[in-house]
Amino acid sequence: MISSCVAFRKLVAISKGTASNGREALNIYSAERDNISLVILDMSMPVMSGKECLVGLLKMDTKVRVLMVSGFMPEGAIKDALDLGAGGIYQKAI
Question: What domains does the chain contain, in order, with CATH numbers?
Answer without folding.
Answer: 2-91 (3.40.50.2300)
